[in-house]
Amino acid sequence: MSINKVVRDADEAIRDIESGATLMLGGFGLCGIPENCIAAIVRKGIGNLTCISNNAGVDDFGIGLLLQQKQVKKMISSYVGENAEFERQLLSGELEVELVPQGTLATRCMAAGYGMPAVYLLAGVGTEVAEGKETRVFNGREYLLEYAFEAGFSIVKAWKGDTQGNLIFRETARNFNPIMAMAGKVTIAEVEELVPAGTLDPGHIHTPGIYVHRIFQGAGYEKRIEQRTIRKR
Amino acid sequence: MALNKEQIARRIAQELRDGYYVNLGIGIPTLVANYIPEGINVVLQSENGLLGMGPFPYEGEEDPDLINAGKQTITTVPGSAFFDSAMSFGMIRAGKVDLTVLGAMEVADNGDIANWKIPGKMVKGMGGAMDLVAAARNIIVAMQHTNPKGESKLLPACTLPLTGIRCVKKIVSDLGVFDITEEGFRCIEHAPGVTIEEIRAKTAGRLVIADDVREMAFA
Q1: Distance of alpha carbon B122 from alpha carbon B36, whole angstroms
Q2: What pTM was estimated for this model as a whole?
Q3: In terms of CA atoms, which chain A residue is nearest residue B81?
């Protein structure tokens, strides 16, 4: 088979992402974020980015690193707390922000991955989220027309992947990763363990390789915990 | 005496029924999990992609890949399942989650809720709250009855940007339990030692007192 999706590292994977690009970035909080690719984007120094991601990281990790370097023009997110620099840039007007209900964010990614231009959703009816949106009544309830996202690149993090681009996610590090993997024009997957095709059980694949264009085994995962909560023995 | 946070959580836990799928928001709602009554089995949904959320892990057993929607490290219980964010909100939207408990900055006497933004001051985002309140069949709000200045948070109309409209079914505050009805807030229970006069004084929205209003009981 002549498909060659495997790239050496994050720098090679993001080589053609230019300033002004729209990126989808997987993860929930700091859980399941593409650490290697974010670091590579910081190194590359491109700017004016539009980032679609549920959160914006924390001040010194995740997408927070891109914000620190002022590489982001616009964030499309559902929740941006826990990030003082983000809040500062938002309130000062340096950063454009579109806040989207979390389920709407997920479903707009899903719609893109399923080839659907738009969907009708309940979330936000009667709130400022509804302003300027087309509505339609079904069974006596009003819904908002929400459009599928368009992103040049989706950047996701998986637990295991194979050389065909098939992906398996671990626990709640799955979150937005599989639906974003389906949604981008070019999807880049970084994985903790890259294995030869045929190694993973086909019945256990979460994201079929058809959606993944580039894959590499990441290095040095920090997997930082945002809220370490424990109980006494 | 007004209730403390744990007591609010304990009272809300009495609303749980065997077999419920429940989504608990951040803050006081999270504490409800500590007071699930004996003999009641519920499955906790965490909207970042888990059914069957368990307690916090023991020290040294934290797993960065296993968190709840508040980004706290957690565990799973036997029979749990993981899924992606689209499926998570799919099950919420389709009405599969029986009960949602969340916090609020303001609730109006028609069931409107505001809990995500204070213009010019605090913008953290709505997270999953707008999706949950739009879709959940039963929504209970856990909240303080008044703000730190002593002003009522149970209002004739919300002053802050709305999270959802006409969706709250019940409020458990530090002063009592209130159903949202056509006539406004209907006080069905008062906290031990809290008078109806105090509740009247601290409720700005329309308030009716149930004929059979009683003192809150803790099992």
Answers
A1: 33
A2: 0.96
A3: A171
Report pLDDT digits (tens) over B119-144.
877 778 999 999 999 998 899 999 99
- Judge contact between B30 and B53, C-beta under 8 A: no
| Amino acid in position A177 | N
Cβ pair B57, B28 in contact under 8 A: no
Chain A residues with CB inside 8 Å of B106's CB? none
B106 given a catalytic annotation = no
> Could you give the ipTM of this predicted complex?
0.96
Q: CA neighbours within 13 Å on the CB side: how many for B6? A: 3
The rounded radius of gyration (Å) of the Cα atoms in chain A is 18
Name the residue among A64, A229, A157, A158 with its Cα closest to residue B71.
A229
Tokens coding B116: 């995500």
Tokens coding A78: 């559902």
Judged by CB atoms closer than 8 Å, whether chains meet at A82 and B126 is answered as no
Catalytic entry in B15, B47, B106, B189: B47
Q: In what order do the strands lie in the sheet with A135-138?
A: A118-121, A141-147, A135-138
3 state SS of A230: coil
